[in-house]
Each structure stands twice: as C-alpha cells, then as structure tokens.
Amino acid sequence: MSLIARYFEATGLPTLILGSALDILEFARPPRAQFLNFPLGFETGPPNDRLKQIEIVGEALKGFETFTAPLVNSLPFSWQAGWQMIETREREEKRDDQRSIRSNQPQYQTDKDRQLAEGN
Predict the structure, then answer these.
(1) What's the number of domains the chain is made of?
(2) Is 25 domain-assigned?
(3) N or C: less crowded end of the chain, CB within 10 Å?
(4) Residue 18 parent element (H or E)
(5) In what side-by-side order are the strands of the sheet with 71-74?
C-alpha cells in the first residue's frame, strides 16, 4: 500500500492510509497514514456500528488537511472488546489456520531475508 501511495503522490494524487499494523506503517513510511490500534481487518471499527465507523473515517480524513510532511498519526480511538473478540474467536474456532500470532517483532521467510533486512 505504501509503495502505491507514494506512486500516486508522485503523480499529484493525494493519498491516505488507514491501518492497524503500526510496525508496517512505520517501516513503509507512506506519505500520510492514520493508525488505529484495532485488530487487523477492522480498521474502521466494530462491525455493524455505522456511526462509529463514520466517526473514525471522518477523523482519519482530517489527515488530508493537517499533515504537512510524511507521518503516521495515531487516532484517539480504542476498542478493547475487539481484541477480546479476536482472542475468543481464535480460542473457540476449530480451523486449520497456521498463521503466526501477531507480534511487534520482525518476521522473515528465511534467514537470508533477515540478514538482508537487518543489514540495511
């Protein structure tokens, strides 16, 4: 997303990313990003809460007016029940999901990838 955003920005089209993976946003350094500490996949907030979603998107769009330089800004919303919902779902679901648990530590496909990334 950040690479695409930088491409569009270079053509004169302003962009703004609304994301919930702070480590990725900070590493990729998009032109404008609003961060929400919500579970992945719920960047606009609780499902079926239309008013909260409109509030979150409205607040995120203010970044077009306030950002004067590339920035990852944290939005002032919290949704603890969302994290609890994800934990409960992961505990109760019986599926073959082999994905790693979300972590703030970098993860690499191979040791060579790690060496290349840490060398830069």
Answers:
(1) 1
(2) yes
(3) C
(4) strand 17-19
(5) 17-19, 32-35, 71-74
